[in-house]
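Changelog-adjacent note: as of this version, every example in the card shows the full chain rather than a window. The one below runs 430 residues end to end.
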Amino acid sequence: MNKINLIHKTLIITIIFSFSHLYANNNWEKIYEFGKQYDLKAIESFSKDTFILSTYFNSKRNDNITWEYALWITTDVGESWKMIYQDSTGVEDIPKMAQQIVRLHVSDNSVISFIREDGYFVYSKDYGETWDSVKALHSEMKFTLSNYSNLDSYGNKYIFTYKGIDTLYYYDLDTKELKSSYLPPPYYNDDPNLMIVLLNGYELLGDDYIMCSARKFFADSVLGFTYISEDRGKTWDLYDRKNVAFKHSFIDNKLGYSCGVNYTKVDTGIVFSPSIDKTTDGGKTWSNLYVGEPDYEFVTFAKNRNSYIAITRYNINPWSSDILFDWERDSISVPVTDGGTISGVSCDDFGNCLVIQRVDHVHRILNPESSIEDYISTNENISYIDYYDFNGNNLGKIKSENDLNTGLFIKAFKDKYNNIIKSEKLIITK
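Full-length structure tokens:
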């Protein structure tokens, strides 16, 4: 039986833009409007042409205000959407912990997961047909300097944190075992000029390897640093860095990039500028690749096979621009796009991207060279196609997509020696 390694981190980095020609004549287009009552929170790519979107909106039922939280799926790059999850919270439960979706994640194994404000970790292995959950929070909220909720995965291992909670949770999807450890200590020395430290975000880069970015505020400066644990949060080591990181994208457990802010002291105070940094040792050391114009701030960072797209937002006005970053060459170009106030961006493995605005709108840009059929037709080495399930089992009797039942599959293009040249994730709904 042939097996495909479905656990390793696939290079989900495919050319968004060939900086010389690929998108020379293409622009972002408004593709879908949910309605003004919808707040579009987060978007994640799932497979080719397929994306998951998180929303909430206010409704009125029997004269009672209700907050509705939902997840949606599109299989046609944003032209149509199907709801796959919904929950609600009545006004009487606000400001208590509610069922609000505070962090959305799609793993390399195509598991959809999110954490809810009321302390649940929720996940689906079948693109939203069924859902499992585990209750993480059982105690009263404790004050901590972690000001973000976080969710990340490595294989079938997950870590997540909740804003205002001083605990890091570690969950194994296979054993369904939930463990916890304390976050890094917020203060790491007795410097009298140190005012406050905030923990920004976490990355799970191995079964036990966790990286946490943070920032420290002094009276006259702001600096970044990194906490790293190699024993699943039992102990933490601290590494200084100049810039503050808000978003990370790792190609493997060593090579990664971050977008964030460079703070510079001037006579009139502190000026901040967007920055892109690179690490080759799992976050212990960082080198700066780019510093942009002052008073712009990164709000999101998407990746696919060969390049990154970082959406920036002006600090005051809802004006945005794209920072296009080619990681193979560590080169950057900056075309301007009027996209409004951006709340999320994601790209599939073929360079088709969706951008969501905070209220209502979904925009997209299509990669005109993303057709896998064109790729196959021009590759003389490809002899036949095999289909696999998501456990890596070869479905030998399946001859076409029409023979597949509802589910997730891998379509593998092979040469005459049974070597896989190209593969594509499939989502089949019937």
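Structural remarks: The chain has two domains: 29-371, 373-428.
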